[in-house]
Amino acid sequence: MNFQSFGFLAFLTVTAAVCLGAARWNRRIAAKCLTLACLIFYIVGGGWAALLVLVMGLSVSVAAVRYLTAPDIRTQAGNDGPTACAYPRTAAQRRRCLYLAMVWHTGVLALFKYTGFVTGGRLSVGWAPLGLSFFTFQQLWLLKEAYTGGFRPEQEDLPLYAFFFPSVVSGPILKPQAFFPQLHGEKFLRPDGRDFAAGLYAIAAGMAKKVLLADNLGAVVNSGWAHLDQLSAPAAWLVILGYTLQLYFDFSGYCDIAAGAGRLLGLRLPVNFDSPYRSLSVGEFWKRWHITLTSFLRECLYFPLGGSKRGSGRTYLNILAVFLVSGLWHGAGWTFLIWGGLHGLGQILERVWGSGRERLPKLLRWAVTFAFVNAAWVFFRAPGASQALTLLKTAVTADFRPPAEWLMADVFAKEAEAFGMVFPALRAWTAPALTYGLFAAAMLTALWPRNAVGQMDNFKPSFGRAAVLALLAAWSVLSFTGVTTFIYSNF
């Protein structure tokens, strides 16, 4: 069920009405209604077979969490007869339980996503449960916290954590400490008026990012990749920059809608983006981009590997390992590994350079970082390494022909057609004007220092804001096609 659809808006409306209404009578029953709604959402989007796979994984997590957090109750003989005593499980037993549960989750992920990659395409499952990558990392985070004693969740809350419908498809990845306490907080399923206003604001902003910006940028990107041999250098840069912006607004838009939906239900999802394209280094970029993934990899992989406590050489190796895992998590292909490796090497080079880099002008540091991120995204989008190198090579050739009209033909196609009917004399200028206007608006929005989710906490309703958001929401809804989906739902 795509977020940018009438079906989702109807589902969200009905779910909020039923759950919030039930919470006035009994919040425990309302929470069960929300869990049921989450399962229905997943069945509609992923199907029964996919749900069965994830339910099996949830069962493993429930059993492991119960073992890791509950005391071992045994009986022993005493003067007054047998008595029950609590004996903590040995470190080896707890570690064995953790490893077995981790093997299950990573094994299922590998089976569905990487069988074809490992076997060179000779063997493949052919499908994967919706949101499997996000589900797996979230369950691993839960297991890690249960093992270390960082958090002990209530058993009855685990299904809602696993299948919470705003985040189950594409995140953000929820740390247990950021989610479970809210289920017993005062505002869970009892949001106030400011929560409603902030939630609607985030949903409208997310819809506009996805439908108006990301999808139209994607029209340029898809046309460019389909005709690589016909691109000039300016057109190649338009395609490269277009994907950089498309991916950000696509994923950021999803997270905004998810956060808004959560706020309508009295839950606050973590900020996943903090103006990442304003970063002055690759390291800073990863503190601002997909923040929950960065946090997961740091806490659950980088620190267990030793972090930066075992010398420079080991630190660099750990950084590279983390980003190769990040690349492979995003997709089973060499291009994703190259993308992850580039970001790992970028951070290593910055550490080797040290404080000398900080003495460079901020504008230069931003330009170098932004150019690096753009170039790395080419491998993330490319169907193969050779095609990525072709696009990058085209971008630095001396072919300065302006971008062809066919590259921009599908940008705001409906709006362009209507404008051309009203002003036929300007028809030839419509596509280029809309395209360059789109890129200018997208860059300005991407570099804006305030993010939508962060603004929810300080959101103050006003007539002007309501009018602008209503206009964006109406435009987005009228632009629904029911065909496009969020890029990260494929991971």
Which strand order do you get reading across the main beta sheet? 1-2
Cα radius of gyration in angstroms: 25 Å
Based on secondary structure, the structural category is mainly alpha
First-to-last CA distance: 16 Å
Estimate the helix proportion, in percent. Answer: 55-70%
Mean pLDDT: 89
Rough shape? globular
Low-confidence stretches: none
Kindly state the number of beta strands.
2
> How many helical elements?
19
Largest sheet: 2 strands, antiparallel
The ordered H/E elements are: HHHEEHHHHHHHHHHHHHHHH
Strand content: under 5%
Oligomer state equals single chain
Describe what this molecule looks like in 3D:
The chain has 491 residues and is an all-alpha fold. The protein has helices at 6-23, 27-46, 48-69, 91-118, 132-148, 158-163, 176-179, 193-226, 233-264, 282-288, 291-302, 312-330, 334-353, 362-381, 385-395, 413-422, 427-446, 452-456, 463-478, and strands at 72-76, 83-87. The chain is built from 19 helices and 2 strands. A two-stranded antiparallel ribbon has the order 1-2. The longest helix is centred in the middle third of the chain and has 34 residues, at 193-226. It is globular.
Primary descriptors:
491 residues; mainly alpha; two-stranded antiparallel sheet; 2% strand; globular
Question: Which SSEs are present, and which pair or pack?
Answer:
Blueprint: H1 6-23, H2 27-46, H3 48-69, E1 72-76, E2 83-87, H4 91-118, H5 132-148, H6 158-163, H7 176-179, H8 193-226, H9 233-264, H10 282-288, H11 291-302, H12 312-330, H13 334-353, H14 362-381, H15 385-395, H16 413-422, H17 427-446, H18 452-456, H19 463-478
Antiparallel strand pairs: 1-2
